[in-house]
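PROTEIN DESIGN WORKSHEET
SECTION A - STRUCTURE
LENGTH: 252
TOKENS:
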């Protein structure tokens, strides 16, 4: 699909090598954007390019770690003079580890990717957006941004934290023409299972109870379509929104 929703626009997408980030790159390129996609996973980025087929020239892929400020600066510079859309998608799970079993290393790693790196990416695009008087940031949060039973303590705290970041940017930078919104997926069929396997039995049993009302898994392009709309001019009156895309799970 190629349409004009993002014609002439540049988008920066993290987590572009897998799952929701990969689907977002494909969606935005189809919507007419030039896209810079970043990920740690070089093979995943190659797969994204392959899936773009003839549209691949519209995308530039960069391998790197968004917890590294130097790489964040490189990624933003690669997008050029202006970034119309930043899609903060990259994230990792925390193996459902509850607080009493938590080691600082896991907390630091999960908060580092899911919260601090999102802050750094967002901070890095602000100057160009403020100068342009426009820009849009969509941050992928989670059902775990709203409740305590869908992940371990690190993931849950990180995903609650990004809601505060999203709302801060919406409030302080809205008058400067910048919109900041969140999309909250439920269960999505992606590669995040690699950091989801439970390591503490009783905590997983407890989490399973909260999953009793979980709808069927969504495919990543359903989340990408929400990101595309929320980031676009069609949503120009939407700022600071917390948009669930979870098949109604959080309504249970
Ligand atoms: N899949 C789900 O069920 C689900 C549910 C709710 C929220 N989410 C959120 O959706 C987002 C995307 O996750 P996904 O499900 O597509 O997972 P995924 O594992 O398929 O993709 C995440 C990508 O982020 C990349 N990444 C991780 N750390 C990085 C870093 N430091 N620097 C650069 N890239 C990095 C990974 O290499 C991977 O390619 C995450 O923020 C996740 O928390 C996912």
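SECTION B - SEQUENCE
RESIDUE ASSIGNMENT:
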């Amino acid at each position: 699909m190629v349409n004009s929703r993002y014609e002439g626009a540049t988008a920066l997408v993290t987590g572009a090598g897998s799952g929701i980030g990969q689907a977002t790159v494909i969606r935005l390129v189809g919507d007419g954007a030039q896209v810079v996609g970043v990920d740690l996973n070089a093979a995943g980025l190659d797969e994204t390019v392959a899936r773009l087929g003839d549209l691949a020239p519209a995308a530039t892929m960069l391998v790197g770690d968004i917890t590294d400020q130097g790489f964040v600066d490189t990624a933003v510079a690669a997008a050029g003079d202006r970034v119309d859309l930043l899609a903060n998608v990259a994230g990792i799970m925390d193996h459902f580890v509850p607080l009493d079993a938590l080691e600082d290393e896991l907390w630091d790693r999960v908060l580092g990717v899911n919260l601090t790196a999102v802050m750094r990416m967002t901070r890095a695009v602000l100057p160009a957006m403020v100068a342009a008087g426009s820009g849009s940031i969509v941050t992928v949060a989670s059902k775990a941004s709203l409740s305590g039973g869908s992940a371990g303590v690190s993931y849950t705290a990180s995903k609650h934290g990004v809601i505060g970041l999203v709302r801060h940017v919406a409030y302080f930078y809205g008058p400067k023409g910048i919109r900041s919104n969140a999309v909250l997926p439920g269960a999505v069929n992606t590669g995040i299972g690699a950091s989801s396997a439970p390591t503490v039995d009783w905590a997983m049993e407890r989490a399973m109870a909260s999953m009793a009302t979980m709808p069927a898994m969504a495919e990543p392009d359903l989340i990408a379509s929400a990101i595309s709309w929320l980031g676009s001019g069609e949503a120009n009156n939407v700022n600071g929104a917390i948009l669930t895309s979870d098949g109604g799970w959080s309504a249970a």
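SECTION C - NOTES
The mean pLDDT is 96.
Residues 10-242 form a domain with the Rossmann fold fold (CATH 3.40.50.720).
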